[in-house]
Amino acid sequence: MPENQSVGTIEAVHPPTVSLVTPSWSGDLDQFRILISSLKRSRLAGIRHTTVVQSEDLELFSSLLIGSPYEATTELFSTEQVLPALVEYKRQQSLRYQRRAGSDVTRLCGSLTRVLGWPNWPRYTGWHVQQISKLAMAALADTDYVLVIDSDVIVTPAADLAGILGHDGIVCFSSRKPLSEFKGKTRKWVLQADALLRASSADKATYDAYFDTPFLLHVNTVRAMFAWLEHTYEQPWWQVLLAQPPRRWSEFATYRLFLEQLSQSLPQRKVTWLAPQMMHYIFDASDSAKLLSELHKAWLDPAIQFITVHSQSSGRQRWRADSYVTELSAMLS
After folding, report:
1. Which of 82, 168, 180, 257 has the fewest CB atoms below 10 angstroms from its CB?
2. pTM given for the model
């Protein structure tokens, strides 16, 4: 860490304040509808909830919220409002290229970018820009924490942030395992975080394997990370991150490693690494009856606070939410 790093960046306030952030887009509209419906019925209902959507989807999401019970507590922003103008311009450019090229050529171009550094547009696809949006919203927050909740999350009646945040120091979800157990993209994410933050991989016995949401971001730590990136690389923080190999970096892996390094340099400041035992994940939504049965059981379990119905399995099969959204909405109500 730079010598001028402020000690105060890792302090937590008790009781800490928290706000919610959801990045979304038109493809996740059905999941988003379920998310806000579950939020409204939970103890998180009164917490300010900010949703960031791609600019071309703003009208669609606005029509969902205006006049609804969620309008008062859900604040809607477009990527144009949140991102630097250059990033939004290049995102729109990347979107046009993707539509012309198709998915196969887009993947090929991403591979070329990782190997050759060209073309540049795959760095600005929606997936990467969503990561930037999460961090940007966290840095702008006027709360102590931001809880990032993706559209495919369902909040249960047992959700209790007071219990999650009621620990000493900074709270961060964590689930560690040896590097040998990491495969594919997650292995690349943790190793790229090491490279970006100039951490030594040789002495590490374990790496953190939790990349899902909900994910807690401590606002002052995010700001400190931005300052470190800009000090070290002499570029805006978002430019540093978007220069990473496409799909080889993770905002959560980068943040958590920075928090780990910062806590080691400031041993008087405590970090509580909290196992995400209150989360439940469903990876196969192909059978609606089986899905609803599992959801109902998890919904009633007092130990489960958040349920994620993954929209894809191993990046290959996408489950259409419209196959179960009506039944699920009825269950929630």
Report:
1. 180
2. 0.91
